Amino acid sequence: MDDAVRPAKVEPPLNIYPGRVDEKGRLKLPVDFQQFLNGLGETRVFITTLDGRIGRIYPISLWRENEAMLREPGEDAEAGDDLWFFASALGGDAELDGQGRLLLPAALRQHLGVENQPVYLHSYRGHIRLYTQAVYDEKMGRATAALPDKLRAFEKKGLR
Prior knowledge:
The chain has helices spanning 31-40, 60-71, 77-90, 106-112, 133-144, 147-156; strands spanning 16-21, 26-28, 44-49, 55-59, 92-95, 101-103, 117-124, 127-132.
């Protein structure tokens, strides 16, 4: 296939972006995330949680891959079934509207407690993670603990 015909690789956003879920349960995605999804050719997403703490916004094609793996987990059948059930019970699909908003599933909003609340968005392994303020603060606390030691260790490994 020619490079001219091959679709360009879509780079996910690198920052952690603040956001807010409004009183109607809509999340306006920052422009960088809108461009990321549009660049993938996917404005339809599946929104859920797999751990009960962090929301996940999957391009629908990536969710279908995960769903297939969870439905055919091999020796981990019970764990796969539990994850798929939990994700399905709290999740739902959504379409990015013309204003760049997604309607979060009501069960997920209630479970995470994000309605009319600030959230943080971060690209991770092809999906968008949605952190509540409490989870963001917890992760920031852990990230900054002993930061100079962490930095030295990774500079020894070649971090520039």
